[in-house]
Write a structure and sequence with these properties.
single chain; 197 residues; Rossmann fold; 5-stranded parallel beta sheet; globular; binds flavin mononucleotide
Length: 197
């Protein structure tokens, strides 16, 4: 059975980005339809006041709003696919603004998560999810020279959507990189968990 995959990418380097190349290689190997949401090629519009009101009013009224419609379209991309790959650079220790804006559109109260006394519960179906993080420097133990707020932030976002066990792959040290892109892709592929074979 072939499973459709959603690839969310946020690199200004677009298809040349190593993370994108890795993501497409993995997606091609898994087969099935690939839906691509390229946040650099097609930037999302800033949030509007009607969207903010709809999300924060205690009893939101259904409104006809371009921002709500875009939110709905982006959420439906998640709902119409069964596998998720996010390929993102690290920008200033966190996710790039383009990806954060996507999060603000898809992580929507009473739509993709529900508030409960204990916190927030995700309303999307869980799915195999891979997050590829590219960074100019190093942030993991050993070679770490900077904090990494991207991983815990995106983990919290995905878990609030209902995605419980995302796998993270790191392409580090890309500024002044020592290995060839092909070698880095091969190393990352070799380290993948069973869900991505
Ligand atoms: C605005 C900006 C901020 C960046 N911040 C960081 C950072 O905090 N840590 C880091 O290691 N690299 C940082 N970089 C470097 C990128 O992470 C690096 O170039 C990476 O390869 C980009 O991935 P991409 O090819 O997928 O775009 C930054 C780059 C830009 C453009």
């Amino acid at each position: 059975m072939t499973i459709p995959t959603l690839l969310v990418t946020a690199s200004p380097h677009r298809e040349e980005a190593l993370g994108n190349r890795l993501a497409r290689k993995i997606a091609a190997r898994k087969g099935g339809d690939l839906l691509v949401r390229d946040l650099a090629a097609e930037p999302l519009a800033p949030l509007t006041v009607d969207y903010a009101r709809a999300l924060t009013l205690r009893d939101p009224l259904p409104r006809s709003s371009a921002t709500l419609e875009l939110s709905e379209r982006l959420i439906q991309e998640l709902e119409s696919t069964d596998r998720l790959i996010v390929a993102t650079p690290m920008h200033n220790f966190g996710m790039p603004a383009a990806l954060k804006l996507w999060v603000d559109y898809v992580l929507r109260i009473h739509r993709t998560f529900a508030p409960i006394p204990q916190g927030k519960v995700g309303l999307l179906a869980d799915r195999p999810t891979l997050v590829i993080v590219s960074s100019g420097g190093f942030h993991r133990a050993g070679e770490s020279k900077q904090p990494n707020f991207l991983t815990p932030h995106l983990e919290a976002v995905l878990s609030t959507l209902g995605i419980r066990a995302p796998e993270f792959v790191y392409l580090e040290g890309l500024v002044g990189r020592r290995a060839t892109p092909e070698a880095m892709i091969a190393e990352a592929v070799a380290a993948l968990g069973d869900a991505w074979y």
